[in-house]
Amino acid sequence: MEELINLIKVLLADNITLKLKSHGYHWNVEGIEFSQYHELFGEIYADYEDATDTYAEWLRKLDAYAPFKLSRFIELNEVGEPEITSDPIMMSKDLLMANDMVTMKLNDAFDMATAQRQQGLANFFADRISMHQRWHWQLSASVKQI
Predict the structure, then answer these.
(1) Domains in the chain, ordered, with CATH?
(2) Distance (Å, rounded) from C-alpha 74 to C-alpha 70?
(3) For 1-13, how does the pLDDT look when each residue is reduced to its tens digit (9 = 90+)?
């Protein structure tokens, strides 16, 4: 169970980092397709924002404390901070790479939760996987060269 709890803490930190990254991209995107990317990045950060509380609540349900210090989030996150850019393609590629890293961790977390007979937690992870698959599709389609 401790391994699962530690993974949830990493996922929480990654989720918060992705929320801040996509929100910053939402603010700073420029170019001819500004409106489309501004809206996409807004949808993405809103989704991450919605998930944040649920990660923390699952930690509490498992009798663990949710990290809340910025220094701890920086230490735990594995998706990294973004480079400063206004290019929507670079932003999308960065989010896509980070999104795919988190999807792999979510699959591991789903397997761990299932093995621990934590069906509600496994359902939460399944829902997050589905959303990350959606972001993969939309970000991949956005950076695809035709």
Answers:
(1) 2-143 (1.20.1260.10)
(2) 6
(3) 999 999 999 999 9
